[in-house]
Structures are given as structure tokens and as C-alpha cells.
Model the fold of this input.
Amino acid sequence: MADKKNLKDFAEVKNSVDGNDVKGLKALLGQKEKQLDDFIEKTQDKMDVGNWLKKASKHELEQEYTKAIEAYLHFMEAKLEAIDKDPNATMLDYYALVKYYVKIAECYEKVTHTSLGGKQKDMDGAAAGSLFRVNAGIRGLPEFVSRVRS
Done:
């Protein structure tokens, strides 16, 4: 009996809706749709972060350290992006990532390096030991020739 009364009330409200009410309802629906899209995006971001972390752990257990490093780096990138999007994020969220930087370093220590000094070159960067010519935009002095004779 209560259901019939609620249906009657709904029918009366539906019949009494005018143009302004329709605009308001559309605005409300648009707002709710945006909130739902934001929720889905946040949920997808959390899933991506979790998936990268699972992959990294799996590769580490299988002693595939290069793949583990790559997965950890993707995880860090996704996590930092999620923290940046979160208006309630604090420094503690960033501090929580330190253990993953340590994990990356531990994996890197376990990677086999095939060339002499390869590990140091990797740590210094791809351009380690390279020579660069830089145009400073200023003119120097001509070469000094010594007049000292022996």
C-alpha cells in the first residue's frame, strides 16, 4: 500500500515539472555524472598503481631485476601522479615512497653489469665521460705563446 502511495506522489511530481525544473535536473545529472567520472578515474589510477607494484614484486622474486626496476619506476610515476591529483595529499604521502626508492637501488645493485665501469657509468648517466663543446657566447683571448727559451 505504501508503494502505491509513493508511485502516486512520484506521478504527481512528474506531471508538475516545468521547464526550470528540467534545467535544474539536467544540471544535477551533469554534476553527478562528473562526480562518477572522477570516481572511476581515481579508481583506475589506484588499480594502475597496484598493478605496477605487483609486477615489480613478481619480477624481483623471479630475479629479473631490470624488469623489476622498470616496473618500480612506472609504479613511482603513477603514484606521484595520483598524489599530485589528491588535494588532501601531505608530505607523508611522499615520504612513504622512500622505501620504493630503496627497493629500486637494491635491485640495481643486483643487476649484472657486463662492462668494466658500466655500473658507475650507469649511475653517472648516459653521457658520463663524454666531451661537450659549448658555445658560451663570449670571445676568449688568443693563445699565449711563451718567449722562454731553454
Remarks:
- The chain has six helices and no strands.
- The two ends are 121 Å apart (CA to CA).
- Residues 25-110 form a domain with the Methane Monooxygenase Hydroxylase; Chain G, domain 1 fold (CATH 1.20.58).
- The helical segments are 2-15, 19-61, 65-85, 91-95, 98-110, 118-124.
